[in-house]
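Archive entry: two folds, one per protein. Generate the first.
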Amino acid sequence: MKERMMIQMNMTVLCYKKCSTCQKALKWLDANGIKYEERPIKEEHPSQEELREWYKKSGLPLKKFFNTSGNIYTARRQRLKMQNFR
């Protein structure tokens, strides 16, 4: 049987308990021996400073930091479209 090494790093994972993708990610981290601190995103929102830092370090498009298919994002986007329509 292959033995897994524990990876030592200081990782914070922002999660939403009802999100199946979050649950899968945590399960994968556990299975691969990766330690992390779980942070409930709904109760502990990331600050603007945190988002700026993560965005700069990531090299990813800003859109990747938001669940653009989620209900809240979709409702807000639709509301903005309606406001701009007037």
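Generate the second and append.
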Amino acid sequence: MSAVVFALAYFGFACLAPHRRRTPFTRQMIGAAALFFALAGSIAERGWSIGFLVWFGILTIAALAVALTLTYAPRLVGHHR
């Protein structure tokens, strides 16, 4: 289940990553929903107290992964130069 939470967090951050001009509103809502479902999955798996802690850790790793992906291969996330 943690892999699903990580995938949802990565997808959410990829949707929320700024585009050349501005990120469309629908894409922002999809990204926020993905992060919410990642939180729900983490809480469902481990309970309230540990679920939040695990979710924050996974968010940190997913944000780092998106940042590195945008740095080295922006086309993988849908951002073109």
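Annotation attached to the second fold: Residues 2-76 form one domain. DSSP finds three helices and no strands in the chain.
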